[in-house]
Specification:
heterodimer; A: 120 residues; mainly beta; 3-stranded antiparallel β-sheet; 1 helix; 7 strands; 10% helix; 41% strand; B: 785 residues; alpha/beta; Archaeosine Trna-guanine Transglycosylase, Chain: A, domain 4; Methane Monooxygenase Hydroxylase, Chain G, domain 1; 6 domains; 5-stranded mixed barrel; 5-stranded parallel β-sheet; 18% strand; elongated
Amino acid sequence: MRDKVQRTSIFFLSRASDFRENVWAPEVDVYRRAGGCLVKCALAGVRPEDVAVSLEGSKLTICGIRRDPMVEEGWEHDSMEIPYGRFERSLTLPDGLQGARITAHYRDGMLLVRVREESR
Amino acid sequence: MSEQDEIRTVPLLPIKNTVLFPHLLLPLSIGRPSSAAAVAQAMAGEEKQIVIVTQRDVSVDDPRQKDLFTVGTIAVIKKMGRRPDGVIEMVVHGIERVTIVKVEEKSGALQATVRKVPAANDGGAEVEALLRAVLDLAQQAIALAQPQATAEMARLMLGHDDPLKLVYLLGSVLNLEVEKEQALLEASTRLDALRLMHTYLSHEVQVLELRNKIASEAETEIGKEQREYLLRQQMRAIQQELGEQSPDQAESQLLQDRLAQADLPDEVRKEGERELKRLQKLPPAAPDYHVIRSYLELVLDLPWRKRSEETIEIARARKVLDDDHYDLKEVKERILEQLGVLKMNPQAKAPILCFVGPPGTGKTSLGQSIARAMGRKFERMSLGGLHDEAELRGHRRTYIGAMPGRIIEAIRKCGVNNPLLMLDEVDKLGQDFRGDPASALLEILDPEQNKNFHDNYLDLSFDLSKVFFITTANNFDTIPRPLLDRMEVLTLSGYSEEEKTEIARRYLIPRQMSESGLTSAQFVIAPEALRRVIERYTREAGLRQLERGIGRLAHKAALHFAEGKTEPVAVGADDLAEMLGPERFFLEQARNEMSPGVATGLAWTETGGDVLYVEAALLPESRGLTLTGHLGEVMQESARAAHSYIWSHCDELGISRSQFRKAGVHIHVPAGAIPKDGPSAGVTMASALASLYTEHPTRRDTAMTGEITLTGLVLPIGGVKEKVLAARRAGLRRIILPKENQKDLRELPDEVRSEMEFVFVERVKDVLAAAIPEIAKQFQVVPAA
């Protein structure tokens, strides 16, 4: 009974996003300036080949997988807070950036996605 | 298709008490080493997957495959950590349902071979309908369980594309038993899952409703009044809905109906309607509500116009009166006269009669039989000791607990406006600083005023003129004069022994016998015995002691039969000592020897008449007149008058002046403890003194009564009948009476009149001549017999 009550309350604390399929969403910052924007995504520990960035219309999607290879054989987790497994993050770009050109590169564990307006 | 058949091997974590549903998060605490090992293996895996299965039996610590349900959930460990005591805490995220194919042990942990359960994808109208029903119920349940979370939950529930997700969500929220949760998990189609959920939810809603009810009952125990109020409000609403009326409305409606139907004078109706309007505006809890209600009830109860139909038949009335009461000719005749008047003129004002007489002479019962003879309702009240006029006339309604007066109450009790109202003990009205009810009675008993009798409570005038008032008293003297003036006095004097015998024979003995359950074959009182009871066991003008005595005889007889004896009881004169005890009174026999200075007088008392002796003695070498024997002022004065009269006629009477000049005189009237007053002992005093000074005794068979004047006239007195009867009881057969009292002898029964010798006198000289034989010789006058 007690167990159930507790569970109920935890349920109400949890977010609706937890209902989605087993994917996690990395945090992003978006920077803006005339003629383009920069999306910074916290994706430390993800191998570049495991990340895919796509743009459909004004919707930018970053997805991929963070694997958890053991640092060395013989160690086991004492705790785990970093989300592993498949991740996905979509965001809608500001108006006027449809069909823009995007480039992505890693720096210091951050994935930087640049979105530039098509020069006329 | 290959995905559906996919078989994997995953670390297995058995859990207790709960079930993990797909799509949901579940925090877990892991203490068992085998479980910890399974978690470690899962964490080491790339996807951190673990299969979570619920144990069938909570008590099993080291579960095997048979101890586990066969359907579990593949989960991903989202977060984990260890508490200092080594217990692992983690949050798992359910992914999908799997069937456990095989369980085996691998390096200290359980490992399961699992197969994915095919996803349910049935649909159609039935699923849709059930889904909606479940949503409805769920909303109810949530509203009952966590009202504050309703909006949030509604958003969550409606945001799902798959009914199964809703079922799982609800399954995790509801407090279901493990078996039920597992059944939900195992449901293979959406329809099944929804059906199960519908059942659970219905139950849950019922339980929650009950719980809420209990909780709210417990809560409102404190605010019971408030709750009652709410309930009343609800009841009123319901009653309104049903077209019924609340009790207080019904009450005022009832009063309204009665008011509409009642036969009321206009003025009264107006007042009643005004009060009713006030009542309808008040809430029942208001203190005034009940005041107005009782007032309205009184107004409606009063017989403003209702009267009992009088059917005056003189012959029948005469029979009723004769049946109920022996003799009392004068009173009966007066009543029949009044009935005759009422028959000729129904509008005639009823007289106000006052019965005056000793206790037990039948005043009250006479009133009852008059009511019966006239066909009127009878109501009596005692005014004895009444000292507050508000008792008669009521209190104004402004006072708390105000009530109508006794008169209005009595009328209400009768239900007609022409009852016979008997006011007992009108001579015992209190009259002091606390109030003067006699003055209030003046209004009530005055036929000119009581047409508009005003009761303070009623505050409307009520017509008392149709009421037949009869008052009773033992004594005129204490009746306030103005009151006496309004009434017609009828005297019921005491009964003679013959009358008593007759009344006992006709009324008292049959009544006592029927009260004791005796028949005339069982119980007989011999005439001699009855006579002795009257003479030796009672001393009264009325009949109460006599009735008690007869009652005792009857009770003894009843006991005799109750004990099983059968022979009839015949009470003889000799049995009385045994049945009633020793004789209580001795006949006051005339004194055998009368020395000079003693004379026999007669007195009237409230309980009848009495014989009293006046004794006079000479006090040589003394002066003046000494009076003793608890004499009142009037009696003392009449003693002085007698003394002066005798001295002023001493030569005529042959009294030697020198002999008595130097002697005082003492007059004593036994019994000394009983107060005596009144002028009627004047002749007795004069006779005693004359006898003393002439040294000739008075006749011992002679009693006398009468007032004297200084010039020697004898004035009439009252209470002749009682006095004569008392003299007769004492064995005296010769009575000296004032001439003017000759007419009163009519009151006496014939046998008494014929037995006695009466001497009627006009002057004191005649008295002395009749009382003292020697003086008669001296006067050489033969007194007129």
